[in-house]
Amino acid sequence: PDAVEAPKWKQMLTQIDTRWKEISHLTADRQQKLEESSNYMTQFQTAEAQLKQWLVEKELMASVLGPLSIDPNMLNTQKQQVQILLKEFDTRKLQYEQLNTAAQGILSRPGELPPSYEVVKEQLVAVAYKWNSLTGQLC
Question: What pTM value is reported for the model?
Answer without folding.
Answer: 0.79
